[in-house]
Inverse folding.
């Protein structure tokens, strides 16, 4: 069977992002090995180390791009903040604890490119333990699924010997002070075998208990480091992920530390936003559990809080998870687009200095969550109309009206594509902020200014239309408004590079922290929250009415 057919056979979900006013329109299919839409690229702008495979669907106008994640070849990345914090608070954590190893099935289970020669050294580890980890399928203990790819790395580093029978005190402290306090981060301890260990722990064999404890500590550390719903489990347009961390080395450092739990806790985000949302979550959770007397400026009056506690608590759980998908060291200068509220903010020295409305993708053409860099501003950009859009939208109109192209300042190019000329009528307006991402999503001007007056601004086909693009250009280029206006008035297409490339994050947060420290809650126009909530609470019993899977999201 051809490679692309095998991969397509494993597909699970469809990407929701389909930009109309971007460089191209495409559908991507999500599968366990992630999906790409950037043909021929070896890596994206952040050196993620992906290998790209392209499969073209037969007799289809839409290309399907398959991305395979190759984690073993990533360049070294040192998460300095985690190392420094661990050194200060947890005695000695070696710098190797934070490295290019990404803790995912793709890296641990992928075969090497070269076959290693047979090791003549006799095996001296625990044969039962190794047999269980090497058995086909996912390993389980007491009905709990284990993360075989993490466990094999962990026990491989320990000669396939049991670990916690030699460190009973450390195991007890990690279980009590870390795993069983996962709710402090909006996480269910049951995700990390907390319930199973409490119920079945005394009755397990030494090997089973060791495996369950190791998986609890490894998976909890992994959840704090990159999210309990890691990137390989998400929809393709939820593409944010932090710096990779070597979880095995972190657990080894925790074993040797005076306070083992503190080493693991150091993996969680340290941003003020994360801490503020954790406090708000604790308050709403206390209310939802029936506690009284919790007061804070981050929540409203008591009667309103009582009615809103449960849905607000759920929103905070979901959005704390989204914060764990972001880099631990957020650039102090950055652009942030929150697609959930259709707003753009420019931060300088970690403070918002410019805020403007934006228009983002419709519910069936959703703007993806991503990290990129704005490198250039394109003045008077033409619009190269994607082939699928031309076929579905432009050509039928041209058939009905032979003068359609001329009246809309469009023309056929030599390669058969259709281009809309630069000018005030261009769908991209007068300015385009160029950035590199595999979705071909970018920021741009628009001639349709009236859309910014709408409350719900999910009206584009994936790209981000900016209400005040000239002001944004002034602030990114460091040039006066007169220079921006002069470049536009020249009429021809020109490019200006930013003095310093600007990191940009497109996020989707339905609960977020304002610059004054208040927690704000908004709607979920893309209906993404429910899937994350269900994933994070999958070990909890549900009411009968909720036993069936959640309905498919918009898009």
């Amino acid at each position: 069977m051809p490679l692309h057919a095998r991969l397509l056979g494993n597909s699970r979900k469809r990407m929701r992002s389909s930009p109309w006013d971007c460089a191209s329109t495409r559908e991507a299919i999500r599968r366990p090995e992630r999906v790409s839409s950037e043909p021929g690229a070896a890596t994206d702008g952040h050196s993620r180390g992906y290998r790209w495979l392209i499969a073209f669907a037969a007799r289809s106008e839409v290309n399907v791009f398959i991305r395979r994640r190759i984690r073993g070849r990533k360049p070294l990345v040192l998460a300095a903040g985690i190392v420094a914090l661990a050194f200060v608070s947890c005695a000695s954590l070696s710098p190797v604890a934070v490295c290019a190893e990404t803790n995912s099935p793709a890296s641990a289970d992928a075969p090497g490119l070269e076959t290693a020669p047979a090791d003549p050294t006799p095996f001296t580890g625990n044969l039962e333990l190794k047999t269980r980890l090497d058995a086909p399928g996912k390993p389980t203990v007491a009905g709990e699924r284990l993360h075989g790819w993490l466990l094999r790395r962990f026990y491989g580093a320990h000669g396939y010997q049991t670990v916690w029978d030699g460190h009973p005190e450390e195991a007890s402290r990690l279980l009590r002070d870390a795993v069983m306090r996962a709710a402090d981060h909006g996480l269910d301890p049951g995700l990390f075998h907390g319930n199973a260990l409490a119920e079945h722990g005394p009755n397990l064999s030494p090997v089973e208990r060791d495996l369950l404890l190791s998986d609890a500590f490894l998976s909890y550390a992994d959840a704090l480091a990159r999210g309990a719903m890691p990137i390989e489990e998400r929809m393709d347009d939820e593409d944010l992920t932090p710096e990779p961390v070597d979880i095995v080395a972190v657990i080894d450092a925790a074993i040797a530390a005076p306070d083992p739990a503190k080493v693991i806790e150091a993996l969680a985000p340290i941003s003020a936003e994360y801490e503020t949302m954790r406090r708000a979550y604790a308050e709403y959770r206390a209310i939802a559990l029936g506690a009284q007397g919790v007061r804070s400026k981050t929540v409203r009056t008591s009667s309103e809080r009582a009615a809103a506690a449960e849905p607000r608590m759920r929103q905070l759980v979901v959005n704390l998870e989204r914060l764990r998908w972001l880099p631990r060291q957020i650039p102090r200068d950055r652009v942030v687009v929150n697609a959930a509220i259709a707003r753009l903010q420019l931060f300088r020295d970690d403070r918002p200095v410019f805020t403007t409305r934006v228009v983002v993708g419709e519910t069936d053409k959703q703007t993806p969550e991503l990290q990129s860099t704005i490198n250039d501003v394109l003045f008077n950009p033409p619009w190269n109309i994607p082939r699928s859009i031309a076929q579905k939208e432009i050509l039928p109109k041209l058939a009905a009206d032979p003068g359609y192209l001329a009246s809309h300042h469009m023309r056929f190019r030599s390669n058969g594509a259709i281009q809309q000329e630069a000018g005030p009528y261009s769908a991209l307006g007068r300015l385009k902020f160029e950035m590199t991402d595999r979705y071909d999503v970018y920021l741009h001007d628009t001639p349709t200014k009236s859309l910014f007056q709408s409350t719900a601004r999910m009206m584009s086909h994936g790209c981000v239309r900016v209400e005040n693009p000239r002001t944004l250009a002034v602030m990114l280029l460091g040039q006066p408004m007169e220079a921006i206006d002069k470049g536009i008035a020249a009429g021809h297409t020109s490019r200006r590079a930013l003095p310093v490339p600007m990191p940009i994050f497109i996020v989707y947060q339905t609960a977020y922290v304002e610059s004054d420290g208040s927690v704000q809650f908004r709607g979920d126009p893309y209906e993404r929250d429910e899937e994350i909530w269900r994933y994070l609470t999958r070990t909890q019993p549900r009411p009968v009415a909720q036993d069936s899977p959640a309905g498919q999201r918009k898009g």
Notes: Residues 377 and 496 are 5 Å apart (CA to CA). The longest helix spans residues 302-323. Residues 80-112+122-265 form one domain. The mean pLDDT is 81.
